[in-house]
């Protein structure tokens, strides 16, 4: 019955939009992007209203909007200029604020932190006619680091470490598998890439053939998958209190993004179809081979393999039904020797990096040998 209904809706969608290519990209066709709320929403608001949004554009210091081949990318970079460098990559629904407490703590301990809003999330545009695959997400890292006023690459830069959450964890491992000479150390929080069973709704046929499905049907399904409301959330009044890291409301942020980022639905759906959420074992094996020292760079390569000097820290949530801790540990253990894998669990569901940052930080401090207080 459910299959019949799905194909009925699909047929309706075909009539609605007309026949067009399944593949959105054509050779030589320039990439077009759906603009983020930075362009579509913020100009309509006063400075006070903007600062009171569930995700205000000034939540972190050091914001910059990088013009790229795929649209504008929101990047934050702050902390001591001579501090050890860390790039943080968020997941498939949560933009940069998922790292709010973790990033603030690391900066207070002398780290130079960089966070990106993943494509189609937060204040980053949504590329339209390229697949949201691992290549697109990995390019974010390059766009972020090469747009910095500081050197993040090259022999004298000192390299950088990476913290990846969910989709960002999979992106991190794929990036490191190709550029182990740039990455000093990796920390993964509930990493995607090895997920055996995707959450309910991610594999919907309506998402697979979204080009033929009316947008209101897709929006209804996406709201069900994410647990967001179909009712438009109100914008802040002129007298609203500003949002800060200390009063950040992540569910309200998810709702705001669902309501006001015109490209979020496209990017999320395309990520479910092309993104590195599952079946990323090959890149993981390569990255793990560099970490363990089993694989090395060519003798003619001018830079050392930084990644082979560190272990891998993986943290999972005990109540996480998306990235199941034991399944994840078993799969990584098959690729990486036990003495190079540090696997830890904390209480919490999939969003534990935001809601249980304290326990996450304790493991990060121990792994990177950081004093917990100064």
Strand percentage: 5-15%
> Residue share in helices?
25-40%
If you average the pLDDT, what whole number results?
91
Content-based structural category: alpha/beta
Shape: globular
H/E series:
HEHHEEEHEEHEHEHHHHHEHEHH
Number of separate helices: 14
Gap between N and C termini, in Å? 62 Å
Low-pLDDT segments:
1-25
Largest sheet entry: 8 strands, mixed
What is the topology, as strand order, of the major beta sheet? 2-3-5-4-7-8-9-10
Number of strands: 10
Q: Please, could you describe this protein's structure?
A:
The protein is built from 14 helices and ten strands. Helix 6 (167-178) links the parallel strand 7 (160-165) and strand 8. With 374 residues, the protein is an alpha/beta fold. The protein has helices at residues 2-17, 37-40, 47-51, 100-108, 134-146, 167-178, 205-208, 215-226, 250-260, 264-274, 281-292, 325-333, 352-355, 357-368; strands spanning 33-34, 63-68, 71-78, 85-89, 112-116, 126-127, 160-165, 183-189, 312-317, 341-346. The strands form two sheets. It has an eight-stranded mixed sheet, with helices on both faces. A two-stranded antiparallel sheet has the order 1-6. Helix 5 (134-146) packs across helix 6 (167-178). Residues 1-25 have low confidence and may be disordered.
């Amino acid at each position: 019955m459910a299959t019949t209904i799905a194909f009925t809706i699909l047929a309706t969608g075909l009539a609605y939009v007309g026949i067009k290519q399944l593949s959105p990209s054509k050779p030589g066709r320039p990439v077009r992007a759906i603009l983020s709320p930075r362009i579509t929403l913020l100009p309509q608001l006063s400075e006070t209203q903007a600062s009171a949004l569930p995700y205000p554009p000034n939540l972190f210091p050091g914001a910059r909007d990088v013009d790229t081949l795929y649209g504008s990318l929101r990047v934050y970079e702050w902390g001591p200029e001579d501090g050890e460098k860390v790039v943080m990559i968020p997941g498939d629904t949560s933009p940069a604020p998922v790292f709010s407490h973790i990033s603030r703590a690391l900066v207070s301990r002398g780290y130079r932190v960089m966070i990106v809003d993943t494509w189609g999330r937060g204040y980053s545009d949504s590329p339209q006619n390229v697949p949201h695959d691992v290549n697109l997400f990995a390019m974010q890292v390059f766009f972020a680091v090469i747009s910095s006023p500081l050197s993040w690459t090259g022999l004298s830069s000192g390299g950088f470490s990476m913290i990846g959450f969910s989709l960002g964890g999979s992106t991190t491992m794929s990036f490191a598998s190709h550029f182990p000479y740039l990455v000093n150390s990796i920390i993964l929080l509930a990493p995607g890439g090895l997920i055996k069973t995707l959450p309910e709704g991610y594999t919907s046929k309506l998402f697979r053939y979204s080009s033929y499905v009316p947008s209101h049907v897709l929006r209804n399904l996406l709201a069900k998958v994410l647990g967001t409301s179909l009712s438009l959330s109100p914008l802040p009044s002129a007298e609203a209190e500003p949002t800060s890291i200390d009063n950040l409301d992540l569910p309200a942020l998810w709702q705001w993004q669902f309501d006001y980022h015109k490209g979020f639905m496209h990017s999320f759906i395309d990520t479910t179809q092309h993104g590195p959420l599952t079946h990323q074992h090959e890149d993981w094996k390569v990255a793990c081979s560099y970490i363990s020292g089993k694989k090395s760079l060519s003798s003619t390569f001018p830079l050392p393999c930084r990644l082979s000097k560190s272990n891998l820290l993986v943290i999972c949530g005990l109540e996480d039904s998306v990235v199941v801790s034991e399944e994840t540990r078993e799969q990584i253990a098959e690729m990486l020797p036990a003495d190079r894998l540090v696997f830890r669990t904390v209480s919490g569901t999939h969003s534990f990096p935001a809601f249980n940052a304290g326990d996450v930080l304790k493991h990060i401090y121990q792994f990177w040998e950081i004093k917990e207080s100064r």
